[in-house]
Design a protein that fits this description.
212 residues, alpha+beta, 4-stranded antiparallel sheet, 4 strands, 7% strand, disordered N terminus
Length: 212
């Protein structure tokens, strides 16, 4: 069947489907980029909170902390706090609260690093659910380590939400009215962690465009 203007009805339907698909991808891409920005800022807040918590438990004044720990990344700051725990410098009850925070922060740090280092718009993956696939294929020197993960804006915001929860829980450790030997104040948000690392996307399900 031929429609007005010389186009067949089937081609018009295909064009409409393509335009709808492109619109959905554009909307999800915009939401994804905004979510990544929120995640970066939330991670910065959590990392700074980790830094302040380390200074408090290590008994370092701010000027000493700036001289020694200001350039430390989250993984190093967390390692220093673990060392304080292992050497019984942090009271047991507080150490028990810190351990799961540090463990989950490590998981979130891994996700953030993967997105930050491999989320180049030169290597884009999209699936039928409009999730963006991020892969290390563009910078890989060992094929055996090929890895791809699928994220959407909601998944990125789950990372941000957990980072904000970690920030708040670390702040409890630094409340001025609470001495280190006293029990921690109640949790401001006792919900379980929301982010879990997605399963890798099988190679045969990846759709990608590599731009030079």
């Amino acid at each position: 069947m031929r429609a007005a203007g010389g186009f067949t009805l089937s081609s018009r339907i295909n064009d409409d489907a393509l335009n709808a698909r492109l619109k959905a991808v554009q909307e999800e891409s915009a939401a994804f980029y905004a979510a990544v920005g929120r995640m970066v800022l939330a991670f910065s807040d959590a990392e700074h909170s980790l830094y302040l918590t380390l200074l408090m438990y290590a008994g370092m004044p701010s000027n000493v902390g700036r001289a020694i720990a200001s350039g430390m990344r989250a993984s190093v700051l967390g390692g220093a706090l673990r060392a304080l725990i292992e050497n019984d410098i942090i009271p047991p009850e507080r150490a028990a609260d810190l351990r799961p925070l540090l463990d989950h922060l490590g998981t979130l740090n891994t996700a953030r690093d993967f997105i930050a280092h491999y989320g180049s718009t030169r290597v884009l993956f999209f699936d039928d659910e409009n999730k963006i696939h991020i892969s290390n294929v563009g910078r890989l020197n060992k094929p055996a380590k090929d890895r791809g993960l699928a994220f959407d804006a909601r998944g990125i915001d789950l990372i941000s939400g957990d980072l904000r929860a970690i920030d708040l829980r670390l702040e409890r450790h630094r409340k001025p009215r609470w001495k280190q030997s006293e029990p921690l104040p109640p949790l401001p948000d006792a919900r379980p962690w929301r982010y879990t690392q997605p399963e890798p996307v099988p190679k045969d399900l990846r759709r990608f465009v590599v731009r030079g």
